[in-house]
Amino acid sequence: MSRAFPFSMPRLDSLETFPGGWHSPRPFAWAGLLCLVLYSLLRLPLPDVGELAGTVLALLGLGWLLRNGAGIRNSLPVWLLLAAILVQLISWTLGTRNHPEWMTDHPKLDRLAKHFLFLGIAWWLGGSTRNTFIILGLGLLGLLLITLGTNSAWQDWMRGFLGHRVDFGIHNAQHTSLFFGAGLVGLVVFAKRVLTLKKWWWLGTGLWLAALLVVLSGVAVTQTRATWFALVVALPVMLLIWMGVLHRQGRLRLANRAIIVTLVAIALVLMSAGTLFQDTVAKRLNDEQQIIDIVIEGDFRNVPYSSIGNRVLSWAAAAEWIAERPIVGWGAEGRSLVMKHTDWLPEPSKAYGHLHNSLLELIVSYGVLGLGVFVALAVWVARGTWLAWRAGVMPDDVALFGVGFFVFWCIVNMFESFLFFWSGVYLYNLVMGGLVTHIWRWQWLQRYPMKDPM
Questions:
Q1: Which residues, other chains included, contact 278 with Cβ-Cβ below 8 Å and sequence gap of 6+?
Q2: How would DSSP label each residue in 26-37?
Q3: Of 37, 111, 64, 49, whose CA–CA distance to 417 is shortest?
Q4: pTM, whole model, 2 decimals?
Q5: 156-197 pLDDT, tens digit each
Q6: Phi/psi class of residue 24: alpha, beta or left (left: φ > 0; alpha: ψ in -120 to 50)?
Q7: Fewer CB within 10 Å of terminal CB in the chain, N or C?
Q8: How far apart are CA 384 and CA 390, in angstroms?
Q9: 273-312 in b/e burial notation, b at 16+ Cβ within 10 A?
Q10: Does pLDDT of 262 surpass 80?
């Protein structure tokens, strides 16, 4: 097996000599891995290239999964992909009968199907932890390229340090903050791997600290309160879980050095960032206090227009539309219908065209049927992560990253519809691919205990 390429290739033995083989013919394997690299690295700095690579890797991966993935091709996510397509067809069919003037000419099946691109990613990762770290690292590198690699990016940094809210050209500041926040979660969780390196530890530690400083600064200059809140919750949750697992395994004392170094480094950077951005953070947190007071009183329709006010208004409008069609929703254009055809919404709110909440947007569009698909997927991934970790197939830090990212992801999606923007779909699929490939490897070993695909 060639080692010229950094990925650990999936088994490439012939189907006859390796029954049920998690493999693809070598040309397809190399093509799939190349597309995976391009998708992971270039989806942010070169969106068109990254999008095309993602489409190719998904189609190739799904095709070979269905052909050669004995033991994993019948796993629940594959069936949920089919369910997602059926839900969209049902919603569109019923919508064309009841309100055809508001329906598209054809069902937009990609609206939910694109959330299953991770099936192709998980296939090409081949169950490898090493490969998973590589694609996550490439994703972080792509973020650093777009936020550090151009003159306009440096101008954004200068404006950000002066107190302005910046976005580095990634849709808007909330989406950029999403990536910085996810990067911070990953850097914290995987810190031990870097800080305990035996060779080149000084280089790894230096790069880790530099990346940590960049993502923390990015979280500050993008000035997104949802990200701040999500991190304030996710990071302590991860720390408590980590300490609990180490204590239960009797390894807490042995890990003290790595824990202390990690916490001290993060604390120093946090204090530096807090000092630098103290006024900016305080202003963002205090700006909406009046709105919060009105919401607490329950007077939703009289909430004045503002960042939080706009969200509250769109959520209240969505609730009314959900009540009318709770089972199948209003179809692919449901979010636009809510914002355009709710009479009492102020004009500035109508201009947004989305609901600032992924859960509400999902239910408005596809009802509880659509919600059921994603709840089932979340339960399957959570259970699979637990079982793969218990079996020793999924490393401790990968499982912890899955938990931390889930907490972070759920919170930020309460305040923005990331699940229905390309930025959120990309990040979601990248992380899901890494988790699912380990779950599949565990399932594989249940069926072929002597034939580890790695």
A1: none
A2: HHHHHHHHHHHH
A3: 111
A4: 0.88
A5: 999 999 989 999 999 899 999 999 999 999 999 998 888 888
A6: beta
A7: N
A8: 10
A9: beeebeebbeebeeebeebeebbeeeeeeebeeeebbbbb
A10: no
